[in-house]
Amino acid sequence: MLILPLNNEHDKKAFDCGETDLNRWLAQVARQHKEKGVSSTFVVAADESSTEIMGFYAINLAEVINADLPLHTRKRLPERVPVFRLGRLTTAKNHQGKRIGELMLFDAIDRVTRIATEIGGVGLLVNAKSSAIDFYLQYGFEKISDHPHNLFLPI
Length: 155
Fold this sequence. Notes:
Radius of gyration: 16 Å
Number of strands: 7
Helix content: 25-40%
Low-confidence stretches: none
Shape: globular
CATH class: Alpha Beta
CATH superfamily: Gcn5-related N-acetyltransferase (GNAT)
C-alpha cells in the first residue's frame, strides 16, 4: 500500500466509506481545494498505478488560540498559534478493519512534522467525530478547551 497525493487518475466517484458527505467531498471538492490552495488530499492505493482509493485524508493550515491548547503546550507561544488541521480521514467500507486509518494517521503525523521543521507549526489539530475520539486519544492526541471534539497532538 502507498499513500499518494490525490490525482486525476484516482477513481473518486467509486469511493464509498458509508458516509455520503465524505464521499461527496472527495468526488466534488478535494481537487478544487488543492487547486485553490485550501487543502491537500492524500489517498491510500495498492500501488502507483492503482485507481482504487482505499482511504483518504486531507491536511490544511490552521490557527488556534494559545489559551485553548493543553496547558503544558502553551508556554512561550504567541496568542495565535500555527497548526496543521487533519480533516476527513476515512477508509472505504470494503477496506475497513485493515488498519488503513492508522496508516493514514501516521503518514499525516510524519508529513506535518517534516513540514513543521521547515516552515513552523506546533501541532496537529483534528475535529473528531464522537465515534473517532478514542481512536485519536490512543495515539497521544489531547482534548482542547474550545470544543469537546477538537483534539490536539503537539509535534
